[in-house]
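Researcher: I'd like a structural prediction for the single chain below. Treat it as a standalone chain; there are no partners to consider.
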Amino acid sequence: MTIRYRIKFETYDDLEPNITIKSKEVMDEVLAKPTNSLNYGMGQEKQIELIQVIQDNVLNEKTKLYVNTKGECPRCKARLSKYGISKSRFFDVYTDHQIKIQRLRCENCKYEEPRSIQGILGTDVSADLKKVQATLGAEHTYRDSENILTLFSGKERKINNHDRVKHTTESVGIASQILDKEEKEMIASTNAKELVLNVDGGHIKTTEETRSIEAMTAVIYKPEAIKANKKGTRNVLTSKHCVASVKDDNQVEIISNTIVAALKQGISKDTHITALSDGAKNCWNVIDAIKPMCGSMTSILDWFHMAMKIENISLPKKLKEKLIRIKWHLWRGKVDNALIRLEQLIELAKSNKDIEKIKKFSKYIINNVDRIVDYRRRQKKGLVFTSNLAESTVESLINDRCKGQQHMRWSREGLYPVLQLRAAIHSNDWKHKWKDAVLNAV
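Model: Treating it as a single chain, here is the predicted structure.
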């Protein structure tokens, strides 16, 4: 005996579920004994074929609901006449469709009902496909995104070419930023007792006349959002709001975006903020703009950046060893001792080049003296003292996407929507706002 299975598409009235209005067989297959993992499942090709056939039936039934059942012209009230069948495209996550639409026209005033899905919905691409394209475009290069989509669709599709992915990513990114400024319901209703704010920047190779452009990022979160991963090897953030800007506007947009993010996290006049940055003036400008909104603030020169600066200073072996020992004083917040040791190091240096390097680092310490704390003590108390405890905003928002390949070049216009989308995806908001962002994308 050969056992088969069949899958049918049926429509029925929910008031009389036992009465079938329409029934159509969409698949009939032999149920064979599997011999390995290749034929145990249905297989990608068959799965997509099943989705294709079912979707064809569902979409055609849904399209009929748009037909003017009254048959009356909305302009002159004359009777509409049938005017042939129009075939219209519609693209979903895995499948492409040709939808049949009954054309209706008024012989009196020549009014015609919409003859395409584009005319009915304003787009011929499903919101879910736009979400997938935009998310991939924000995380991968546009060509890599095309290849990923091809892999999961089981074939090349024009709707998934890299130009289309680029367009979707940019339009959804811009829509996401517009929504972010207009949103009211996402503003936190409860006041946060304490928040942590990291502000950072990164330089990206550009297509413009300058060698690079600077992108600024900020992430704000509650200290209790820092959790160790399951292996206990590193800390991650379970809740946060990220913002980014690449505009050359004297930090106007990054400040505005950071304020919105702070409001969403519950900033109030009773909130204490621990603010961390690498010492760049434009980063501290953003932090200073947040000060009037909170009750108090502790400004900290990020230990991760300071330690990296020491590591990246190239000096002869003996001088380098002495420079690294100065970290001991800085780690304990003993700035005066560190500056004395740096002066001694300058006297020991023989080349002007080495002297300049040490003086530059000494000036960096002097410029940030009020922001250098007892990092060792904060660590023992379980207090935040570095952005590296959580996630580097530059790594997660900028470098991972925008600097992964050395030949990559960006314009401000092209980079801006990508950063907005990455900030949204890496924040709490994306699961709530992606539908509106996609529907509002041009």
